[in-house]
Structure formats: C-alpha cells, structure tokens
Design goal:
Elements: H1 3-13, E1 20-23, E2 38-41, E3 47-52, E4 56-62, H2 67-77, H3 94-98, E5 101-102, E6 105-106, E7 111-118, E8 124-128, E9 149-159, H4 169-178, H5 183-197, H6 218-227
C-alpha cells in the first residue's frame, strides 16, 4: 500500500518465496496452473499536481491507481493529453512498463519520470524518460530491467491549453459527432469505440485486443503505399 512497505519488503525485512511475479490488476494474465512463488501488486494511491505553469501541468500518480481513474481525474481537471488512453485496463504502474498506447497516443508522449523500488535490495531509483528507453509497446522494464523493479509512482506532463490528437480516423469521426472537441468528448468517443469493440472485462473475462503493428523499414513502407494507396501507416 505504500512505497515504505515496498522498500521494507525488498530490503530483506520479510522472507519472500521465489520466484517473484509483479502484476498490475492481472487483466492480461491467465494462470493455467498454481504459481509456486510470491505474487506482488501495488496498491499505492495518491494523485498529485506537483508543478503548474501557464500551459502545462505535471501530475504524479501512485502505481496502484486504476489507469482509467487517473484519466478521468485529469479530464475532470481540464488536463489534456491522455484522454485518448481512456478505458485501457490495468493500473498506472503498468503504463510505463508496456508504454500503453491507443488512438495515436502513447504513454511515453507524456511520462517525464518513473519512481521504482529495486526487488533485489529495496533501493529507490528514479528513471528519466530517456532511461525508460520507451519504444513501441516496450520499455526498459520489459527488457534488461524486467522483474528488477516495482514501479511506485509515475509523473506525467499534461497540457492545460486543450490540445487534442484526433488524427486517428475512427476517433476523429466519433468526436465530430459530439461537436466541438473537448477532453470530455474525446474521452466519451474513445469509451464508445472501445465498448463497441470489446466486452467489458469486469463483466465478461476476455483477452482484450492484442496485437502489435509490424515495424518495417521506411523504404518498404513507401513501396507498399504505392501498391496499396490509402494504406494506414505511422512513422
């Protein structure tokens, strides 16, 4: 429930049965047998505004905050940027691990730093955005730092000027149906689209939408566009 508990846990104050597995809300995990080890999940709460300027604001959130609760909180405050990521299941601590993304937006676009506790000795470390090595649905936490840290808090820099990313076709169309874009309307449009595509996992357990777009060389992308005009692509 607290970072202090995490430090105490990993610094050896308690005996832990190995192996360890860290999960968020478990929405992307299916256990097919008993797990003979220790399962750890964060319940660290707290959403705070740590910095505010004329055009932006820095918001930090505990890793145990349900991700969509954070999005709703920011939208209600008029802080824009992550509304495109509405209704993504899981907790805030998983956002930098997976570099979650949807409708033309990724978590890395707004994360400025991540605080984590070492699972080896309980030391606290801050990861800068560069140190997180964000990539498409990837980060340092999925590579050579995998299972080595428990994320405890994440900082996001958001806009206070009402800037929206509506270059994703289906989203743009849905928002325009609602009128002049606002954070609330973008969030409502995203929720509508996602709800139509997938059952609510809290009502009917499901594997969600899982895929990764292929990453190819730019020259091959150019060749494909010539063969298939209108092909959707992102640099």
């Amino acid at each position: 429930k607290t970072e202090k508990e995490a430090v105490s846990l990993f610094s050896g104050d308690f005996s832990l049965k190995k192996p360890l597995i860290i999960i968020g809300s478990g929405s992307n995990i299916l256990f097919i047998r008993d797990f003979d080890g220790t399962i750890i999940t964060s319940d660290i709460k707290g959403i705070r505004v740590s910095e505010k300027s004329e055009n932006s604001v820095v918001v930090s959130a505990g890793s145990g905050i349900v991700w969509d609760d954070l999005v709703a909180w920011c939208v209600n405050k008029g802080f824009t940027g992550i509304e495109n990521l509405s209704l993504i299941p899981g907790k805030t601590g998983a956002a930098p691990v997976q570099n979650i993304g949807a409708y033309g937006v990724e978590a890395k676009d707004f994360i400025i730093k991540v605080k984590a506790v070492s699972t080896f000795d309980g030391t606290v470390r801050y990861f800068t955005k560069n140190e997180c090595e964000f990539a498409y649905r990837d980060s340092v936490f999925k590579k050579y730092e995998k299972n080595k840290y428990l994320v405890t808090r994440v900082w996001f820099r958001l806009s206070t000027r009402g800037e929206f990313r509506l270059n994703y076709g289906a989203l743009s169309e849905e928002v325009l149906k609602l009128g002049q874009p606002t954070a609330e309307k973008v969030r409502a449009a995203v929720i509508k689209i996602r709800s139509e595509k997938l059952p609510d996992p809290s009502v009917l357990g499901n594997a969600g939408s899982f895929f990764k777009n292929p990453v190819i060389k730019e020259n091959l992308a150019d060749e494909l566009v010539l063969k298939f005009p209108g092909m959707v692509q992102y640099p």
